Amino acid sequence: MALQMRTECEHCHAGLAPDGEAYICVHECTFCPDCASAMQEVCPNCGGELARRPRPKPQPARGPGQAAA
Ligand SMILES: [Zn+2]
Ligand SMILES: [Zn+2]
After folding, report:
1. What's the average model confidence in pLDDT over 2-6?
2. Ligand 1 centroid to 30 CA: how many Å?
3. Average pLDDT score over residue span 16-23
4. How close is the Cα of 69 to the center of ligand 2, in Å?
């Protein structure tokens, strides 16, 4: 199962755009930038560090049979 991209802050339930700014911990607890900042970038659920969620990048389609360099 693919990683689920959460679309709202677990703390204040603010909506988060998939390509907008958001913070996640190693367990994918997801928070908006305001809450992450207010919590000193520490996840209140697991105590893990909150890191900025990378934006999904458009991946070039890889054809079959292409060797990974
Ligand atoms: Zn929030
Ligand atoms: Zn967490």
Report:
1. 69
2. 9
3. 91
4. 35
